[in-house]
Specification:
The structure is a homodimer.
Chain A lengths: L2 E4 L6 E4 L37 E4 L10 E7 L14 E3 L2 E5 L3 E6 L13 H18 L7 E8 L11 E7 L4 H17 L3 H12 L3 E4 L3 E4 L10 E5 L11 H21 L5 E6 L14 E6 L6 H6 L2 E3 L3 H10 L6
Parallel strand pairs in A: 2-15
Antiparallel strand pairs in A: 1-2, 3-4, 4-7, 5-6, 7-9, 8-9, 8-13, 10-11, 11-12, 12-14, 13-14
Chain lengths: 335, 335
């Protein structure tokens, strides 16, 4: 019998399908072969991107020159413009404003054929440090209310360049989904005087069926009501609304856990394309008691179709307990 | 300058991107060549589907035998089960219920290589009649609160069988998105004492820039804040919450408009894969004053990625005024 399950934060229901139950091997395979060709993110091609906003460099190397290990640049084709005022206005019954915002690219490595899963944990930690450095800088701009950090790995997951990179977008409004998380977590807190994410951590540790991996600072689980097969959440044990306020120890810990998780996914799902998103609190409201930053990892295995676009309701053909078991038991291959 | 625009019904903001402005020809082309092979939806293969729930047949032909022009059958791999009780229950902090619902397939034509765009308007009207017949039957089951009717055309849009078909899913809960439409439309009505969709029709007819086509009963527009390039809404002029309560004349009219629109899309976007969804009111609340049924058409031209999954915010690289102009001026080819 299929099950309808409700996400305890957003209230979103999903269908966990059984008739269509899918094992990892029954999802189509994605070719990770790189096409190569000219790449603006490779070391030596620094003049093909806008000038860098941040770089971690070896001693003595110069701005916008080779010698970096990580580099953050403005997106050459930004979805939003950094210059200008919002100019909120109406158009008859409709509402609009200028597309003001920041759109940056984090080039995670100088090497074209490297992936996040295969970097050292120190290199992954540097990616998190770069996210933090940029968020702290962007937060000083009072036009912005929310920053989303995300990664599209592989062309089916929306990556237009194959060189490993992430993106940072600062927005003048709080978008729908983070808004729903905030409002759901606030409602839960008002009712229970507890953080819903802290409660999830407690229950998942006790139950164990959706637990994938944990270390001293983080826990990785298949959520109870995932939209997508093998969707995975990484939650910090320490309650905090803001990703950028984490301790150094936590960035090290999350890097280790993420690396292990990505390598397990690469093993179980054969290097799937995926999206990774950091969910952190908006700025101008007090979310201290009830919001809890976390990371969501979504392997791109299925197609979203009319049913989902029409209802916002998702059909997930792999139950999260099965997904967690596959990932928990996976042995990452030698590097 | 990119624009941020807000959907007046759901309050969802989108980014209309200008840096990435895309003309129709810059979206990748989709091969519509059919693979052929055995098809359970073809005439003569009736015994490869579950027994029919409804068929429009030529005189004298028998149930589950050839001789039909349209056939509705239960989905062989249903996302939800029709038999059983909901058995709502908790699992610690989580909530779930049995996956009870109906999942049906409307085989729109006996011919394998026919498409909705190329059917006669009478044949298309029969598809709408079949939707209506099934909705009226399913509504008698008091476990159901919402019915979604949708079509996935082409493999990139999620169709797993290439033979032209639609799907009907009856659900025991009102899903997120229709719930947001209802709640947004109710709020608007409480404020203005007018239906938000009626107001959209009035403004779009006056402005004209997003108007694609109209006839005596329907109007087709590019919505002000579309999630996707070339997203198109078909709205009935006559205010009514329920698709299934439309007049015969309206089913004829909408068939003509839909055919014209699909042929224009086929011309402008080179037979794109697409999703079509009928948005109609849930059953057990009085939405008479403020909800307005309509059809949403979404050509599948872009990839949804980390930004969208993480925020519920969409980046649309073609502004709706441009999309409307392309479609309005398109001359559908000879059939």
């Amino acid at each position: 019998m299929p099950e309808l399950r409700k996400d305890p934060v957003t209230g979103r229901w999903v269908i966990i399908s059984t008739e269509r139950e899918k094992r990892p091997s029954s999802y189509g395979k994605y070719s990770i072969e790189m096409k190569g060709g000219f790449c603006p993110f490779c070391e030596g091609n620094e003049n093909h991107t806008p000038s860098e906003l941040l770089a971690y460099r070896r001693n003595g190397s110069e701005r916008d020159q080779p010698g970096w290990t990580l580099r953050v640049v403005p997106n050459k084709y930004p979805a939003l413009h950094i210059e200008g005022e919002l100019e909120r206005q109406g158009e008859g019954m409709f509402d609009k404003m200028n597309g003001i915002g920041a759109h940056e690219v984090v080039v995670e490595t100088p090497k074209h054929d490297m992936t996040l899963a295969r970097m050292t944990t120190d290199e992954i930690a540097n990616v998190f440090w770069a996210f933090r450095d940029r968020v702290l800088d962007l937060k000083r701009d009072k036009r912005f209310r929310y920053i989303v950090i995300f990664k599209n790995q592989g062309e089916p997951a929306g990556a237009s360049l194959e060189h490993s990179h992430s993106q940072i977008i600062a927005l003048p409004i709080v978008p729908k989904l983070p808004g729903e998380e905030i409002s759901g977590a606030r409602t839960y807190f008002n009712y229970k005087e507890r953080c819903v994410y802290c409660d999830i951590i407690t229950q998942e540790k006790t139950e164990g069926t959706r637990l994938i991996e944990e270390n001293s600072d983080f826990i990785a689980v298949s959520p109870f009501a995932p939209r997508f097969p093998f969707e995975t959440w990484i939650l910090p044990r320490q309650h905090s609304p803001y990703f950028e306020n984490a301790q150094k120890r936590e960035y090290d810990s999350v890097s280790k856990l993420l690396k292990s998780l990505l390598r397990k996914m690469d093993r179980v799902l054969e290097t799937p394309p995926y999206n990774m998103i950091i969910h952190s609190s908006p700025f101008y409201e007090n979310t201290q008691d009830f919001y809890h930053w976390h990371i969501e990892l979504i392997p791109k295995l299925t197609k979203v179709a009319g049913f989902e676009w029409g209802t916002g309701f998702y059909i997930n053909p792999t139950c999260p307990e099965e997904a967690a078991r596959y990932l928990r038991e996976a042995v990452p291959g030698a590097e």
